[in-house]
Automatic annotation (TrEMBL):
Organism listed in the record: Pectinatus cerevisiiphilus
Major localization listed first in the record, in broad terms: cytoplasm
Name of the protein in question: Ascorbate-specific PTS system EIIA component
Origin organism lineage: Bacteria, Bacillati, Bacillota, Negativicutes, Selenomonadales
GO biological process: phosphoenolpyruvate-dependent sugar phosphotransferase system
SUPFAM superfamilies in alphabetical order: Phoshotransferase/anion transport protein (SSF55804)
Length: 147
């Protein structure tokens, strides 16, 4: 479940980023600091986007950056980040991105239930409103835990 893979330390609000690369680095940094990923994981995300395009922009205003486990996923986790000013990733359909959910999956299955929970949240307008209005990470985690 989503609440099992995220916590207040993995939430960043109102990140300032000049471009999509900086947005990836800053949104993934809490996972790096928490020991969930290695720096090579962040680099793999960026390299993959440069090679294959903005496939991580999964719906309007939302990116789900991730890479293969062997590039440095230590533990499954999901970081939640909002951008102060949305940035473009090159997705004609879904840019600009304002919400980033950085995924670390250390195997092929442990994160699937959490992704299902996240997908359900992304269909709720009140979730985006809460993300926009949240003043602290604890508000976001409380919202998720009370679903």
């Amino acid at each position: 479940m989503l609440k099992d893979l995220t916590n207040e330390k993995l939430v960043c609000l109102n990140i300032e980023a000049r471009d999509w690369k900086e947005a990836i680095y800053k949104s993934a940094e809490p996972l790096l600091l928490a020991g969930k990923i290695k720096k090579s994981y962040i680099e793999a995300i960026i390299n993959t986007i440069e090679e294959t395009g903005p496939y991580i922009v999964i719906t309007k205003n939302v990116a789900l950056p991730h890479a293969r486990a062997e590039y440095g996923a230590i533990e499954s986790a999901i970081g939640i980040a909002t951008l102060k000013k949305p940035v473009c990733f090159g997705s004609e359909e879904n840019d600009p991105v304002k919400y980033i959910f950085c995924l670390s999956a250390h195997d092929n299955t442990s994160h699937l239930m959490a992704l299902a929970d996240l997908t359900a949240l992304l269909e709720r307008k009140d979730f985006y409103k809460m993300l926009d209005q949240a003043q602290s990470a604890s508000e976001i985690i409380s919202y998720i835990n009370n679903l």
